[in-house]
Description:
The chain is of the alpha/beta class. It has one domain (2-274): Purple Acid Phosphatase, chain A, domain 2 (4-Layer Sandwich), CATH 3.60.21. It has helices at residues 2-25, 66-77, 103-110, 125-128, 134-140, 175-179; strands spanning 31-37, 49-54, 83-86, 119-121, 144-145, 149-155, 158-164, 188-191, 205-210, 239-243, 246-250, 268-274. Helix 2 (66-77) runs parallel beside helix 3. The radius of gyration is 19 Å and the shape is globular.
Amino acid sequence: MKRLKWAAIxxxxxxxxxxxxxxxxxxxxxxxxxxxxxxxxxPAALSGLRVALLSDLHVGAPHWxxxxxxxLIAQVNAEHADLILLAGDYMIxxxxxxxxxxxxxxxxxxxxxxxxxxxxxxxxxxxxWHGPALRPLFEAKGIHALDDEVFEVETRGTRFCVLGLTxxxxxxxxxxxxxxxxxxxxxxxxLVHEPDVFPELDSRVSLTLAGHTHGGQVRLPLIGRPxxxxxxxxxxxxxxxxxxxxxxxxTTGIGTSVWPVRFGVPPxxxxxxxx
Length: 275
């Protein structure tokens, strides 16, 4: 009986400790990932190009209010990346204990991002729930907002394109029709909120960059990620994925959705060096 009692007490203490960590410590952490990727159809002239990727800031989520987001942006600027890509979900919708920051405030914060080749953004499902207000606000701050559009970059005596796809819930074009928007023969990056379009893209794309999944927010030992907001579950949950020679990078993002919990999946931003 005493053994059972002490086992129950130990289990309760472990549960409280893990819950406290998952709600108060890990969601407040910040991991910076620097990765070098060898990607197809990427010319030697562009080798070494550095791209900072941020997604799912959910400004106003617990631990990621305006002051903390401003510090994050200053840290990203200090990376001196050539290009900054924003993969959507800047707003919060239903996160528990969050404090919504209005669209002008979010645009003001992200307008502080700077990179020599520009700051390029697409919008996510949380942004779409708030209507189209963000786009003009972003553009007024010098952010290139893409909605099934192409952003062309000239640098190092050559050029490449970023094709920004509309959020999956609002997308009208097929993947083939999307790719037709980009000029042929030009190195191509695809920026999209959800990674689920990746299997439909062809070998024209050197690299697809996405967010949305939050890496599941929880990754348990032995069990893995119980919930991933993707019809492919954990297949495109996080990191660098290569399938049939095609490359995808999914960042687990900064903020949280629904419950402000993270375990085994800390907030992150990524700096990719492309070769």
